[in-house]
Amino acid sequence: MEITQTDGKARTGVIGTVRGEIRTPAFMPVGTSATVKAMKPETVRETGADILLGNTYHLMLRPTAERIANLGGLHKFMNWPLPILTDSGGFQVMSLAKLRKITEEGVSFQSHIDGSKHMLSPERSMEIQRLLGANIVMAFDECTPYPATRKETEKSMLLSVRWAKRSYDAFHNGSDHARDNALFGIVQGGVFEGLRRQSVAALKEIDFDGYAVGGLAVGEGQDVMFEVLDYTMPQMPKAKPRYLMGVGKPDDIVGAVQRGIDMFDCVMPSRSGRTGQAFTRRGTVNMKNSRHIDDPRPIDAHCGCSACKDYSRAYISHLIRSGEILGPMLLTEHNLTYYQDLMAGLRGAISAKSLDDFVDEFHKTRARGDVDAL
Amino acid sequence: MEITQTDGKARTGVIGTVRGEIRTPAFMPVGTSATVKAMKPETVRETGADILLGNTYHLMLRPTAERIANLGGLHKFMNWPLPILTDSGGFQVMSLAKLRKITEEGVSFQSHIDGSKHMLSPERSMEIQRLLGANIVMAFDECTPYPATRKETEKSMLLSVRWAKRSYDAFHNGSDHARDNALFGIVQGGVFEGLRRQSVAALKEIDFDGYAVGGLAVGEGQDVMFEVLDYTMPQMPKAKPRYLMGVGKPDDIVGAVQRGIDMFDCVMPSRSGRTGQAFTRRGTVNMKNSRHIDDPRPIDAHCGCSACKDYSRAYISHLIRSGEILGPMLLTEHNLTYYQDLMAGLRGAISAKSLDDFVDEFHKTRARGDVDAL
Predict the structure, then answer these.
(1) Tens-digit pLDDT profile for residues A241-295
(2) Inter-chain contact A37–B325, Cβ cutoff 8 Å?
(3) pTM here?
């Protein structure tokens, strides 16, 4: 990646891929089952997204990676020509699959959709991500549960390191795909500084194209998460992308950018949109709340998304109450626009070396609350 | 309306409104609760729609006509600047409401949403449609059930005639709205020629801006429906718009256009889209069928909608199977495009005085079937 400017520990720059550039810090909308729910891909692009995340676990089960490969790959399948990062399946197999069994070889499990039996291993995960045509491939790891003892966490981290090496070897198997695309390692080690340091060191030894921090935002709380970043980030290579997986709320992202993270993904803006929550500079707004039903103003008069340009709170509130599909469509578009605007603001502030001021203003505006006065 | 060309009994032309022109024969997508389900209004426009239909019954219950009026009217509320026709509520109150009671005054009923008590009468229906800001207002009528005896049908038709007169008087109460917008009467009389003739004569006496044929497509079958049109249409004023309510399947529309109908509405293209059905020139395709899951071709290579330009059958089939919102979004867009393309074809054929050839080709293509060879 090219780092164009730094401000404290924060950095802004560009990650180049064969599918185009990713401006960092970047937020990746989640397109679990080959679609960002309730959104056309061109609308996702209009919100400002440079890259999407796809889920190996979901896609391997339905419609299957082999089927997507036969149809020309995930980009063509879902009509998203820009970069795609796929996760390894390690996280979802632990959170969604039934009857999982972890061995040194990998994880055998039953599909949550139809109970069919499957296996994920570093080699199979690399094969699936290659079949999908991912531009950024994630190493297969075990996402350590939280809480876990130091001993449990160490055992899990060491397994992830061995799987990381096998992922690296499987990725670099001579395929054209490996030549044109990137593989990221995932730092584990829970909330234990020594284990995080040990994990980073082992992954650096393997030499990945980028490094993710995994196993956070799993219930430990923001203070603990930031503490882990505080001691983990200085160990990570400066010249390579750093990705905080599954994070997060807007203030999580702001704090992580201050600590040197370049990439994020989270279902929050899209999932919240489907349940009637709107993100704004002054906090979240529940569009189901009855105070909106006569309100002619947009969710946020300063937002440029079509939900804010063309519709009132009253209308969006009506759609959500009536269970109309257009409600999730508009709120997802708004929330993704909010997230991408936040990332653009962070990038601009780092470029101007005024990140502290930006962050102060961010927190002050939120603390003011009063989302009705936007 | 301006009739620019006729071909047999069929006509093509333009209905002018303060919100823009409606090219006829016209198909009106149904925007029941102030939204065409799963569609942004700009996408509905892109399919070729000149006018939408809104439902008085749904809107009076939620969010209420008074609320929409306070927010600037239905056009602004739902971001549809073009013409809107609203029905009178007469049909839905019979098919959806609970504990209905019909008197000479009107219909009292309970909401199917929350059980709250309401009343619809000719005067209240006119008031609601005025509050919504409809460009074409429908007279309040009783939709006669099918089957019904001649006696029952006559009684119902005569009630509708009395309500039509009250609708006319209430509409023309001196409001600005009546000056700028139109009121259509609704011909009833079931499947009885004498009663249909009597209904038309009585409505012509009142002198509406357009005339609808109601009480069809309620289970009587296409042959009976066409028979009713065959003897009803010659009675209707030639210079005014003729609207066949709630119709229909593509071949219903083609046959009705041949008999002189100018306007249609139906939930079929949007509702079918949400259940995985795609309309094509060769008939309907069930996108849930497993034969599509590896098919790289679009639903219809000759269709210009974004579902056909950007996506494969395999992908749309995946979306529908996975319950993804983008599935209904794309299929609704495709189906509405199919309907609007059919209307454009009918208008073109009438203009060229080649409607018979167009209709022959329409039926031949459908009879050929083989939707996989589109």
Answers:
(1) 999 999 999 999 999 999 999 999 999 999 999 999 999 999 999 999 999 999 9
(2) yes
(3) 0.97
Q: Do A72 and B294 touch (CB under 8 A)?
A: no
* B287 lies in the same domain as B142: no
Identify the segments of chain A with pLDDT beneath 70: 373-374
How far is A165 from chain B, CA to nearest CA, in Å? 34
Inter-chain residue contact A318 with B294, CB threshold 8 Å: no
Helix (H) or strand (E) holding A257: helix A250-258
Q: Which residues of B are catalytic?
A: 87, 265
Q: Are residues B127 and B232 in the same domain?
A: yes
pLDDT of residue A152: 97
Core vs surface per residue B64-80: b (16+ CB within 10 A) or e: ebebbbebebbbbbbbb
pLDDT digits 0-9 by tens, B196-225 = 999 999 999 999 999 999 999 999 999 999
Q: Same structural domain for residues A262 and A277?
A: no
What tokens does A255 get?
A: 């704090």
Which parts of chain B register pLDDT below 70? Answer: 373-374
CA distances from A65 to A132, A135, A173, A330, B360 (A): 6, 15, 18, 30, 45
What is the number of helices (H) and of strands (E) in chain A?
Answer: 16, 16
Residue A87 a catalytic site member: yes
Asked whether the ipTM of the predicted complex exceeds the cut of 0.90, the reply is yes
Strand partners, B280: B283
What is the rounded distance in angstroms from the CA atom of residue A113 to the CA atom of residue B18?
Answer: 52
Per residue in B131-178, pLDDT (tens digit) is 999 999 999 999 888 899 999 999 999 999 999 999 999 999 988 999
Instruction: Tell me the sheet residues that pair with B84.
Output: B52
- Between positions 26 and 85 of B, the ones with CB within 8 A of A are 33-35, 37-40, 62-63, 67, 70-72, 77-79
Q: Residue B298 contacts by C-beta under 8 Å, 6 or more apart in sequence?
A: B307, B308, B309, B311, B312, B313
Measured between beta carbons, the chain A residues lying within 8 angstroms of B296 are 71-72
Where a domain ends, among B208, B243, B266?
A: B266
Please tell me if residue B117 touches chain A, with a CB cutoff of 8 Å: no
| Residue A182 main-chain phi, psi, to 5 deg | -115, 155
When divided into structural domains, chain B yields a total of 2
- Asked whether A226 and A251 are in contact (CB, 8 A), the reply is no
CB count, 10 Å around CB of B5? 15
Which residue of chain A is at minimal alpha-carbon distance from B41? A326
Q: Residue A167 sits in a domain of what CATH number?
A: 3.20.20.105
pLDDT recorded at residue B310:
98
| Domain interval for residue A212 | 2-266
Q: Which residues on B lie below 8 Å from A318 (Cβ)?
A: 33-34, 62-63, 77
> Of A241, A266, A291, which residue constitutes the final position of a domain?
A266
